[in-house]
Structure formats: structure tokens, C-alpha cells
């Protein structure tokens, strides 16, 4: 049986007592000459009815303007545009894969070896391009364009190649895919 002495009762009372607040509460603060207020609920919603398109032509024009602005804003650096680009997968296929169907390759992107990235940069030259490629992103800077593109798969930058098509003014990147489980697919 536990014996309750006056000393243990005092310690038990200390444990059960509510702690003193260490932070000043609203009523404890001194009043100052500054008034704190909020205008959060008072901000009017800016819905301009005149900007709403009235017919399909105005809607298409508005969409085109917004797309152009997004192209400019998407670059985010010095008003340079984001160039148009396309991504395609490339797979090395032999006669065994096509006709005999002996290989383990499938038509899916999991059996592809390369990622082909074509970036159209009209008005630029190869000398003006600054290209940086790492395992997860491609960054291109020029006087007119800026693109920072995250890649859908990891790549091996050491085995990747870049070329410039002067007629089309297009940068072509052949990026060697480096996926963790490639040994399973091949």
C-alpha cells in the first residue's frame, strides 16, 4: 500500500497544476498607438465582364493572346520566349524483333533506348546557344529563348548527343535513357 505523506501530496499537486502561460495572450498585451486590421474579407473580386468573350472569334483571339503571354511568362528570364519542342522515343529494332519476335522488346516506351528532343529555335544560330544537360533536366539559353525542361526519365548525359539543323533552325538532342531496371527489358 502506498502511503501519502505531505511531501508526496505537494509534489502531486504540482504535477496536476496547470502550467503558467509562457506566451503573452491578447489581453496581456499592452495597447499601442498602432491598430492592427485586416482587409482580407474586404478585397473586391476583380471579375471584369468586359473581358469575357462574346463570340467564338473573340474567345479564340483571347486564347491565342493568353498562349502567347504564357510562352513569354513561362520563360521567366528577361522576356525570352519558350521554344517549341517535341519529345519522341527511339528504339533499336532488328529483324529478329520484327519478323521472328524472338527479342524481349515491346512497342512500349519501356523498351526504348533513346529520347529524341527536337527544339525549334527560329532566328537563332548554333553559336548563340548555351546547352546544359544533366541526368534529369535540359536547360537551353540563347539571346531569344530560354527552356528548362524536366525529363520524364533519367538519362546518361555522357552518352547523349546534340546536333544543329541549320535549315530548320532546330536543336536535336539524342538523349540516352538510363533507367534503373533496363536490364529487365533487354
Automatic annotation (TrEMBL):
Question: Which parts of the chain are coiled coil?
Answer: none
Annotated Pfam families: PIH1_CS
Q: Which GO terms describe its molecular function?
A: dynein intermediate chain binding; protein-folding chaperone binding
Protein origin, superkingdom: Eukaryota
Domain (PIH1D1/2/3 CS-like): residue spans on this chain: 82-176
Any one Gene Ontology cellular component term annotated for this protein: cytoplasm
Instruction: Name its GO BP terms in alphabetical order.
Output: axonemal dynein complex assembly
Family per similarity comment? Belongs to the PIH1 family.
Query: What name is this protein filed under?
Result: PIH1D1/2/3 CS-like domain-containing protein
Amino acid at each position: 500500500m502506498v502511503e501519502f505523506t505531505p511531501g508526496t501530496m505537494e509534489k502531486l499537486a504540482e504535477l496536476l497544476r496547470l502550467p503558467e502561460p509562457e506566451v503573452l495572450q491578447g489581453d496581456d498585451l499592452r495597447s499601442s498607438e498602432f491598430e492592427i486590421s485586416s482587409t482580407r474579407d474586404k478585397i473586391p473580386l476583380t471579375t471584369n465582364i468586359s473581358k469575357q468573350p462574346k463570340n467564338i472569334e473573340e474567345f479564340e483571339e483571347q486564347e491565342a493572346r493568353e498562349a502567347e503571354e504564357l510562352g513569354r511568362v513561362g520563360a521567366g528570364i528577361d522576356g525570352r520566349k519558350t521554344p517549341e519542342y517535341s519529345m519522341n522515343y527511339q528504339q533499336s529494332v532488328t529483324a529478329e524483333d520484327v519478323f521472328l519476335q524472338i527479342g524481349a522488346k515491346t512497342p512500349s516506351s519501356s523498351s526504348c533506348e533513346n529520347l529524341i528532343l527536337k527544339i525549334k529555335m527560329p532566328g537563332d544560330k548554333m553559336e548563340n546557344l548555351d546547352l546544359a544537360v544533366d541526368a534529369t533536366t535540359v536547360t537551353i539559353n540563347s539571346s531569344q529563348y530560354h527552356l528548362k525542361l524536366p525529363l520524364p526519365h533519367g538519362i546518361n548525359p555522357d552518352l547523349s548527343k546534340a546536333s544543329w539543323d541549320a535549315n530548320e533552325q532546330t536543336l536535336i538532342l539524342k538523349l540516352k535513357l538510363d533507367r534503373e531496371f533496363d536490364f529487365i527489358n533487354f
